[in-house]
Design brief:
209 residues, 7-stranded mixed sheet, Rossmann fold, single chain, alpha/beta, globular
């Protein structure tokens, strides 16, 4: 069974961050489960870790250094997952403090080489670069294998029907497909680089008439 851990750092109920996290989880599950001719796929388990519910335990962990109860379960799920989807609201120009505190809880090397999809929500599209100047460097430091497409959703993206068939849905499907490819180790085989083994200049001169 393929396991996908979805980290949602939204604080309100309901939360646009959780809505985006759920949509990414479902899209990734569909992409991983898609069956190509001659192939079979195992079931996909998508588990959402709602950091709001773990806030007190995360704070305790910063003081004790030991995750307990549901937080320990969440840490184990992330460590054992085949891939991670990490979604945070934007606060003061960056990911939330709760989001960062959770990843501080993880043991060193937990995310090393693990496929990760990053996403964020905010009230305005002006915060979209948070994905590139804050979140992507964080996961690069953790040595995760972050997929190329990151997903940002502003309040306007959650209009009627947009998450099902609008531009946000297209971004979700593209990112989910990239994450699924990493999980399934599918990837496109690149053509040979024509400049990898150039002909020596003297050989070219020898071929001249």
């Amino acid at each position: 069974m393929t396991s996908i851990a979805v980290i949602s750092a939204g604080l309100s109920v309901p939360s646009s961050t959780r809505i985006l996290a759920d949509a990414l989880g479902k899209a990734t599950a569909r992409a991983v489960s898609s069956v190509e001719p001659g192939e079979t796929r195992s079931p996909v388990d998508v588990h959402v870790v709602e950091l709001r519910d773990l806030a007190h335990l995360i704070t305790d962990n910063t003081l004790t250094g030991f995750p307990t109860g549901p937080l320990a379960d969440a840490v184990r799920r992330v460590a054992e997952a085949d891939a991670v989807i990490a979604v945070s609201p934007v606060y003061t120009g960056s990911y939330s403090g709760l989001f960062k505190m959770f990843f501080d809880v993880l043991d060193e090397g937990t995310l090393e080489g693990k496929p990760v999809l990053i996403a964020a929500t905010a009230g305005t599209a002006r915060h979209s670069l948070v994905l590139e100047f804050a979140m992507r460097p964080l996961f690069a430091y953790l040595r995760a294998a972050v997929v190329p497409t990151a997903v940002f959703a502003a309040s306007e993206d959650f209009g009627t029907g947009s998450i099902q068939g609008g531009s946000l849905a297209k971004r979700i499907d593209r990112a989910a497909g990239e994450l699924a490819d990493r999980v399934l180790r599918r990837g496109t085989v690149l053509p040979d680089d024509p400049f990898a083994n150039p002909t020596p200049f003297e050989d070219l001169l020898n071929d001249l008439p």
